Automatic annotation (TrEMBL):
Region ranges (Disordered): 29-51
Keywords: Signal
Similarity section: Belongs to the bacterial solute-binding protein 2 family.
Name this protein carries in UniProt: Substrate-binding domain-containing protein
Organism: Streptomyces althioticus subsp. attaecolombicae
């Protein structure tokens, strides 16, 4: 989730031709309920799990210093374990771009069949993506996008604009009958493109509700501490409002602390990303948090599905194309008390 580079909002762009024979991408969109402590990737049925050609997938991501990033790693590893024909080569992970480039170059030198890369900085790692592609190693670019489409064969990731759009529509529908309703926003860091996209989507959605006004916005840093301090500032500045949209469930933990300390319960809150703690609070339904908008870490499981299909020369079952898509955008579903049980297995810690 925290991202120092541009994350594009992309549609489903398909490759050539007709009838496919391969992997069904389930990680982005699967809704099947299940139980236990494993991630959704380990609970959902694996795509096309009939053994095929052996594929070695190199996986390189940033340091898992955030709940969402840790869930990305877990989803990728557990998805790969579903396949007897997949071997994973996993790097240690680093937020230092030079170190991550070195890790990816090691995977290239090992001649892995496919690379799955979630870059710490998409712009800075574009050249190593190009290097892999030129070496004949297809790249699945996960979430944070490279600067050039020549640096990857397929991109799979979340929809930041869609997060804001769906959060805005949810709040709009809840407040549409309330005269002069006021909303506030606790965003992510303003230097990130993803933050600007989420805010833009939120603002665009609110345009459909002329009686609702956004009266304040504060940027946090995707951390518990920043969420608590910035939320405290918002509460001090705004004595009355009807709804809050918080971009990130990790910083939302801090925001909820500030709200509890202030003794406020006179508004509804919508979160972002899909943390297990948020799901549990929504299910309990005894506080201000009523919904969260997904940025699903199950996209990493889908990336493994796509990488395996690329390594085996397959397409995606259920689609007419011979080739896998060039781009897959995961949907930012709204999770509230009506459907939280369905999504509980996808929640990350």
């Amino acid at each position: 989730m925290p991202e120092p580079t541009f994350t594009s909002r992309r549609g489903l762009l398909f490759g050539a031709a007709a009838v496919s024979a391969g992997a069904l991408v389930t990680g982005c969109t699967s809704n099947e309920p299940s139980g236990g402590d494993e991630t959704a990737a380990n609970n959902q049925p694996a795509a096309d799990d009939k053994p095929g050609k052996q594929v070695t997938i190199g996986f390189a991501g940033p340091q898992a210093d955030h709940g969402w990033l840790n869930a990305i790693n877990d989803n990728a590893k557990q998805r790969a374990e579903k396949y007897s024909d997949v071997t994973m080569e996993i790097t240690e992970g680093s937020n230092d771009t030079a170190q991550q480039i070195g890790q990816i170059e090691t995977l290239i030198n090992k001649k892995v069949d496919v690379l799955v890369i979630l870059p710490a900085d998409g712009k800075a790692l574009t050249q190593v993506g190009l290097k892999a592609m030129r070496a004949g190693i297809p790249v699945v670019n996960l979430d944070r996008i490279f600067n050039s489409p020549q640096a990857y064969r397929c991109w799979v990731g979340g929809d930041n604009y869609g997060m804001g759009l769906n959060a805005g529509h949810y709040i709009g529908e809840k407040l549409k009958d309330k005269p002069d309703a006021k909303v506030i926003e606790l965003s992510g860091p303003d230097n990130l493109e993803l933050t600007r996209q989420r805010t833009q989507g939120f603002d665009d959605a609110l345009k459909n509700y002329p009686d609702i006004r956004k009266v304040a916005r504060q940027a946090a840093e995707f951390t518990v501490e920043s969420g608590q301090s910035r939320m405290s500032q918002l509460l001090q500045a705004q004595s009355q409002f009807d709804a809050l949209w918080n971009h990130d469930d990790d910083q939302g933990v801090g925001a909820l602390r500030a709200i509890e300390q202030a003794g406020r319960d006179d508004f509804l809150m919508v979160g972002g990303a899909g943390a297990l703690s948020a799901f549990e609070a929504i299910k309990a339904d005894n506080g201000v948090l009523k919904a969260t908008v997904l940025y699903p870490p199950t996209m990493a499981a889908s990336a493994i599905d796509l990488a395996r299909a690329l390594g085996q020369g397959k397409g995606i079952g259920g689609l007419a194309e011979f080739e896998i898509p060039s781009s897959v955008t995961c949907y930012s579903a709204v999770v509230d008390k009506d459907n939280v049980d369905q999504y509980m297995p996808t929640g990350f810690r």
